[in-house]
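User: Fold this one for me? It's DUF3303 domain-containing protein.
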Amino acid sequence: MLFMCHVTMQPEDRDESIGRFMENGVPEVPGVKLKGVWISLMQQETFILIESDKPEAVAMLFEPWTDLNVHDLIPVMDFDQLKKFLEAKG
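Assistant: Here's what I get for DUF3303 domain-containing protein.
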C-alpha cells in the first residue's frame, strides 16, 4: 500500500530537524520502500511517499522524528489503481 506523509515542523524546530536529517539520514526500515521525498522551499514541510504493507514498519520509520515533527500519514493510490477500482466497482 502507498502512503503519503505530510511532515510539518515549527520554525523554531527547523534547524534541529534538518540537522538530525543531515547527521542520520532517513533510516532504512525492512518492509518500507521509500518512493520519493520532497521538501518545501521554506524547509518547514516535507512530503514523503512510501510503500508498505506493514504498519509496524511504517511506525518504525517515523518514530525517531515524532518528538520534533508532526506526521500526517495518508493512504493513497495512483490514477491507474483508481481506474481499476472504479471499473471493478461497476
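One thing worth pointing out: Residues 2-89 form a domain with the Alpha-Beta Plaits fold (CATH 3.30.70.100).
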